[in-house]
Amino acid sequence: MTSGGASRHCGTVREPHPIFRHEDDVLGPAATTEWQAFVTDSEGNTLGLVSFAREES
């Protein structure tokens, strides 16, 4: 039996960073900032992650 991903390299390719500010709801939720990050999974695939964060008022 193997430990799965524990013996394989996983890591961050690019740290989370803001890529776009949504003023309206044309491309995403209005009044949010779109964040993006990239990671590598246990099989060596690069995965893109996206998040929409509402700004505090």
UniProtKB/TrEMBL annotation:
GO terms for molecular function: methylmalonyl-CoA epimerase activity. It is an enzyme of class 5 (isomerase). Keywords: Isomerase. Its EC number is 5.1.99.1. Residues 12-21 have a biased composition (Basic and acidic residues). Residues 1-21 are annotated as: Disordered. This is Methylmalonyl-CoA epimerase. The lineage of its organism: Bacteria, Bacillati, Actinomycetota, Actinomycetes, Micrococcales.
